[in-house]
Amino acid sequence: MSAFAWLQRRGPQLDAAQQARLAALPSAAGFDEQPLAAQRLVVVDLETSGLDPRRDQLLSIGAVVIANGAIDLAQQYECTLHCAAHRAGASTLIHGLAPSAIAAGAPPGEALLGFLEFLGASPLLAFHAGFDRHVLVRAVKQHLGLRLRHGFLDVAELAPLLCPQAELTHAGLDDWTRHFGLQVAERHHASADALVTAEIALILFSRARRQGLDSLAALNRRLHVWRHRAQAPSL
After folding, report:
1. 87-101 burial, b for 16+ CB within 10 Å, e for fewer?
2. Which CATH fold topology does 36-231 show?
3. Of the N and C termini of the chain, which has fewer Cβ atoms inside 10 Å?
């Protein structure tokens, strides 16, 4: 049975074609022991109407695939979502999405269904993944009636874990981009931010292999220990 077979009886109104597409989605893969170079990973970035993941709306999705140890530019997903109630605000100065672009966006259910088809069973990477995960989980539940079960790894945690000498413990995406000397043509655009996050992730995976961490499961275990140490009171 598909991992997405638990559609809610009371939820979004989906037509027969959409229900069939949902039923065909594969089960989410966990963090396994495959070598990092053998993984298909989806790096995602979201633009939202604000910074509250419990309330603000998802406006744009940008995603790129890492496969066979490289960024596969042939596999990208980009979509602006329609949001009838959206009004220009402070966040517009950051993401640059005009109200007209959002008004002309794809229906949220269709945009999210397309993203899930693009995602497949692959684990997800994001910078500050907790925010993106919360927004995606809420949007998928609201518009598709599904529970998103895909694992997320946070590049904002992997970077200081694997590069402690950088002394950028609470750094943002711009800080790590500068640290690694990457060139970015555009920022605060979902697809562009997903691409630079993927570039940073590949650098980090190279560092991880040199430290004997060559799987998502190994990285996740090391992150668990790192978080525990970071939260422990200093003596």
Report:
1. eeeebbeebebeeee
2. Nucleotidyltransferase; domain 5 (3.30.420)
3. C
